[in-house]
Design brief:
Blueprint lengths: L1 E4 L6 E5 L6 E6 L4 E5 L3 E5 L7 E6 L5 E4 L5 E6 L4 E6 L5 E2 L11 E5 L5 E5 L5 E5 L4 E2 L12 E2 L5 E5 L6 E5 L2
Antiparallel strand pairs: 1-2, 3-4, 4-5, 5-6, 7-8, 8-9, 9-10, 11-12, 12-13, 13-14, 15-16, 16-17
């Protein structure tokens, strides 16, 4: 089960059951959270406003995905070719008319809190930043981070390991 705790209180104020197979990955957004389970599926929950499973859909170990901050859509890239499936979180059904500008981005792994920037893994695990509305890469990062990074809530800065992997560096994205 998943439990929520009040800050400083240490007592659970919310508790809800998740699949018995367990959680492999959990990613929150402003109002929702998605869980990838060992049952090879994703479940999207309305986690912050009270437990409520919104949808579930197939998701394999070769898939990647991000839950957009508004919680309305889940962007899923499937298999080796990274085909894009855009899913409405209210139903889990694929929709064809949303976010098609992102169908050719490399492996996505995070989105900024404002939903404007998408982090992807390019060749040699180089981090690339894409404009969500246009589907275009923001100016390449000079000697940018490799393999892992986080983006600021406003999508303007990127924090990640330097090339020597012993230092964190901060990059301006805009």
């Amino acid at each position: 089960s998943v439990q929520y705790y009040l800050e400083g209180g240490g007592k659970a104020f919310m508790n809800f059951k998740v699949p018995a197979a367990g959680i492999v990955q959990m990613t929150p957004s402003a109002d929702h959270a998605w869980f990838m389970t060992l049952n090879k599926e994703v479940e999207v929950w309305n986690a912050w406003k009270g437990p409520g499973k919104m949808c579930s859909f197939p998701f394999t170990i070769n898939d990647t995905g991000v839950l957009l901050p508004d919680g309305k859509y889940f962007l899923q890239q499937t298999g080796v070719k990274r085909d894009l499936i855009v899913r409405e979180t209210s139903t889990g059904k694929a929709v064809d008319d949303q976010y098609q500008q992102l169908r050719n981005v490399p492996t996505m792994f995070a989105v900024s809190d404002d939903g404007r920037r998408l982090l992807c893994l390019g060749e040699n695990a180089a981090i690339k930043v894409f404009d969500v509305a246009k589907g275009t890469e923001i100016a390449p990062l000079e000697r940018g981070p490799r393999g892992n990074a986080v983006i600021s809530g406003d999508g303007r800065r990127l924090l990640g390991p330097s090339s020597d992997a012993n230092t964190l560096e901060l990059w301006d994205v805009d």
